[in-house]
Specification:
mainly alpha
Length: about 100
């Protein structure tokens, strides 16, 4: 559960940071944050699955408790996956909104 929260927060930050750095995809703070949260959740989960994280939340919680909680590597991977996922989803949302405006 903590990993998901970290991914969501990192996604929101990643979406807003991407919007601030790349003005052409900036959709405003609210849309940047929502897109970032969605992307952060997806990105963190995908990265966790690719790097060998548990897909079963109960098994993940049991493994985390046995290991004494989250390690720094798990936190960094969730922040990275969430931040990148947030930026990617914001870019996709921006492209879709621009294509809809042309139609």
């Amino acid at each position: 559960m903590i990993e998901l929260i970290i991914s969501l927060v990192a996604g929101a930050v990643g979406g807003n940071l991407s919007g601030a750095l790349v003005k052409s995809i900036n959709q405003g703070t609210l849309i940047n944050s929502i897109a970032g949260i969605v992307g952060g959740g997806l990105g963190g989960q995908i990265l966790g699955a690719v790097l060998g994280g548990s897909v079963d939340p109960a098994a993940g919680a049991a493994a985390g408790a046995a290991a004494g909680g989250l390690d720094i590597g798990a936190i960094i991977s969730q922040v990275a996956g969430g931040g990148v996922g947030g930026g990617v989803v914001l870019a996709v949302v921006s492209m879709v909104r621009k294509m809809m405006a042309k139609a």
